[in-house]
Amino acid sequence: MTAALLRRTGVVLVAVVAVVAAALFAAHIPRTITIFLIAAFVAFGAHPLVKRLERRMPRPAAIALVYAGLLGALLLLALVIVPIGYGQILVLVVHAPQYVVAAEGLVVDTERGLRQVLGDRVSLPSYAQIEAEVGNQVGGLLSGTIAQLGTIVVGAVGALVIGTSALVLSVFFLLQGREVREGILAFVPPARRAGVGALLHELAEVFGHFVAGQALLCAIVGVAVWALLAPAHFAFALLVALVCAVGYAVPFVGMLVAQLVAALLAIPQGTGMVVWVTIAIFVVARIADNLLVPKIMADSLGVSPITVMFAVFAGGELFGIPGLILGIPAAALLRVLFGYFVQPYVVRIQTQAARPDASEGVHVDVRVDEPIGGPALAETVIVRVGPASGEG
To answer: Element (H or E) spanning 42, and its range?
Structure first.
């Protein structure tokens, strides 16, 4: 085993030990890790806009302008959207008996239709059995919710503290971003700093464009759903718009759940409202998928639709909801890492295979052009380099 191979093996072992130690340490500080991750998400999302504004103003002014807009949006959410959404939730609670009656009719009609089609060949539960089972489940859910009410309030306060801390920390991430990058590069050998610096820049660009693009898409979907449902006097237009905006962040699955929730909420307003709500949400989702996503996300991420589907389903199966949300940026980051580490190695092997004689030697032809007559001029040397041949 050569000294270079021993040195590389030692570096790999040290890196593995460092990663394991960092993971064990992070497992003991989950709240701090959560704050830093949320701050990183916010900073990555704000970075593309800050970078554009930085061309016209100093970086601190660009950061201040972006966060002023973000705080304005949060203030609008807290003072306008949340109270209206809360009011619609109260309306939903008040009209809960209507939903129960509508659900009873739907269950009875479904049971009757199935019995007419299947007869006695399949044992179906009666409506009384279904009602008793649903009552037990709902009663248990309400009891558990009331018992954990204090925990829920404490958790909400903790979430508010975490969100505020992460927002403040993200400002420092943006202000000190270059210093953080230079600190990371200080641990890299000088000969490799240019390549590692370019890799870090591309990773930050890909992830930043994903966060900013996803936030923009969710906002557009929510506003579009509200603009279509509010003029139709749908009682829960804003609530459904918020559900769709949040659901669009979860590819494929989120909008299906939002569409089902919206259809259930539209039942008391009649079949026509159910059909309109379903069509409106479906059209908005398809327009966003086919027109907005390619323009906003595809160019910056460079991930094919097949890769997107595989990343989403694989991430969901492995990590649940976080995997569904982060599957696409994870695939984009893997693409970047493949381009920096694996692809050059593959290209080098293919090049060596295509030119097997390239390593046997180099043949150099030198020709000196001399002027015909007249004073001596500067000599022109033409060098041709190619694989060595068997000629002498």
So the answer is: helix 30-53
